Model the fold of this input.
Amino acid sequence: MEHFVEATLTVNGNPVRRRIAARVHLIDFLREELGLTGSHLGCEHGVCGACTVRVNGQIVRGCLMLAVQADGCTVETIEGLSDSKELGSLQKAFHEHNALQCGFCTPGMLMAAQDLLNSSSKGSKITREKIRTHISGNYCRCTGYQAIVDAIEEVINGKG
Amino acid sequence: MAKAELPLHAPGTQIDKGYIGQSVPRPNAQRLLQGRGAFTDDLRFPRLAHAAFFRSPYAHARIKKLDFSKALTAEGVIGVFDGRAVAEYCTPWVAVLAHLKGIKSPEQHAIAIERACWQGEPVAAVVAESRTQAEDACALVEAEWEELPVVVDMEESLKGKTVIHPEFQDNICFKREHDTGGVDEAFGSADLVVEDTFHFGRHTGVCLEGRAILADYNAGEHSLTVYHATQAPHMMQDIFSRHLNIPEANVRVIAKDIGGAFGIKVHVYPDEMATAALSVMLRRPVKFVADRLESFLSDIHAREHRVKVKLGVKKTGDIVAFELDDLTAIGPYSVYPRTSGIEGNQVVNLTGGPYKHQKYRAKMHVVFTNKNVTCQYRAVGHPIAVALTEGIVDLAAQKLGMDPAEFRRKNLIPDDAYPYTFPSGIKFEQLSHHKALDLLLKVMDYRALREEQSRLRKQSVYRGIGLAAMIEVTNPSPAFYGVGGARISAQDGATLRLEPTGMLTVLCSVTEQGQGTEAVFAQIAASAVGVSLEKVKVITGDTGVTPYGGGTWASRGAGIGGEAVLQAGRALRNNILEVAAKVLNADRAELDILNNEVVNKLTLESKVPLGELGRIAYFRPDTLPIDFQSELTVTRHYTPRQYGFTFTNGIQASYVEVDTDTGFVKLLKHWCVEDSGTVINPMLVDEQIRGGIVQGIGAALYEECLYSPEGQLLNGNMADYLVPMSGEMPDIVCAHIETPTKQSQLGAKGVGEAGTAGAPGAVMNAVNDALAPFGARVTAMPFTPERVLQALKKV
Done:
């Protein structure tokens, strides 16, 4: 028999209480149970980064974490960080640089980029190499990455 | 002729191109940036059922028995079906085309009947209330198998000791020979003949979004609506209609957001056809999304060629002849409806393509194997033709002691030689190889780079510079598929409608997978009609609303669909001015449209805003003359016809450093000069090229589907199958020559595949240039550290 666990978490600022099958990973829970389809399923084995979301301020792979492990946690997704405008600068730069094509990797890519932005001290310059390394866990088949690096560099180094 | 009717490239005329040529951001990217896209798996439907497939664990085996009894009683299961059950609703197909003479392939069913021919072929379908339940029940399907002899090696397949399909005498799907005559004499006259064998690994598209389909059959009206991650909605409409026996007009295919396609999503897949059939069988919506593991097993693979190539050259460096022997393996079936004969055919057509030799002989065999099927994937055949051409050209230059750039300059077809017929029979309208070479050497500062290379060599730093000139098939005419009997449209259509508020709605049959189709159509439509860009709304990917057309493949969207948009825009502009003349009681010839207003052509004085014109035309036509009817919706179509293909040209350069102790190749920089005719949006064009180059780099350095001797895919996951990630990728410099095609008024040629076509050859030549001091050479892609060390005889 399927094992269920009751969990309470905060998702994009809203309290959520559900009985969750123990084997459901976080990203399936967010997409299927909460309808937050902005985060995508790319590989389901932790390589591609498409399902990157934020849990308690840290970016995680939504496919490598069980939903019940988020009990008591604060979860933020692309929907929440778009509405709060936290991603606004990066979204604008991504748009202007065409740092996305199909857009499937983009929510995860933005999560990773914002993480670098948040962890960088103000005024310090970050090299393209550092940016490339930081987003190396996020697979993009369309762009060749250069425009993504350009966009992140512009926001972080304040060229915009 | 008014200026708005002249070709954009009309000589000696200053044409106002409007937004054409401007790097405007894509309006439709905004929703994707906020996670508000509508990918197929994001859609929610009442009574949606989920399909999962029980797939063959063997590369070749007879299905002795399938037992669904346990699966059928599992929680949430709606039904479990074998091949025969699905075949009652979905007829099988045979993927052959008449113009590929002699091509053969067996009948293929949506779900295998009696026999599975590759590991991963669907053998049963399970439908349940959730995907999880469907997968759980799949694990309860019990099968008894009788293993059959497996053919995995293409040389073995060609020998034909074991024949895969009992209805055939051999394993040859297709073969082609081409001979201009005089080849032996030409080789006899050569001062130097160089030969080499190149191997191209089998790889696959790895779209981040797996293949996805949601089929919704409505028994009440015998209609089928399919939400499908497809590049060719009208082609799929025709196929669903014919194979499921539903009238064409009752089938609607909707392609919403698509998470990467690259040719992967332009083919007919058994599991997707089965999903559509299941929806009909169960009379409810059914969804299937390929997960990553089954994507590796069932998305088309591509390449896997072994090519022997020979080149004859004079001491002066003049190439006199090319000879080619290509062998490629495609899995057990030719893929429907485009066939799997095209890639090899392209290799024959394109090899040696940039050069002016006249003698050429080629033979090519396409053989069956018990691996996953292969078919057209981004740049189809070009990466192979370019790499082996440029690889053998570099070898000849090296043996003659000539600089590779100079060797190319000597042999590239002169820029004033067009129109030109290449010895393989293909025709070039106008190419610009020499201009492109000159520009490339300038932007990369070739001479300085060579100096740096030679300076570093003395410090035991081994860097290499690789060049790859190329030609590319774009904007295909009906000669590509239609003449062979495929029901694949070579024409595309655009409908433009002026809305009452003065906004413009564009509906086009070309689809969007992120390359910027909708953005460039908006630019063209806004420019052609005379409205500002934010007034334009573009709708694509819905057979229920757009004109009929081919969709997106073979670098055709901007060139063909864009021309249809331009033609429709110009016609609509005329129609708007007809209305304006009546509204204003003015002479039509004195009026023009500029920035959302009808203006006096000479004084540019505003006469009437389009919003006001729309109000009158739609809501107060009673105020217009009684014999006048406004026509503010216009449809135009376009088919390229003068040439079989609108060839483009380009040249790439790669700069690498090889670590001779570890075999690792570090990509330092990459350059591309491309002539894709009229550039509509430079930013998007460069993005297409860069993304394509990185995909080509993947083929050159990382990607290969590895099979065991038993036909088991050994690395079918993203941890073991390596794709290019940002950390290893270089910055890429793009530059352009613009030689518009005169076949269309827009003048745009295709660009989507150019990067992928040229990059593997450029990287290969760069690696070999770096290895040259050691007398070492690599010719088997991908160039893994192991292969580099083998070439260096270190392992």
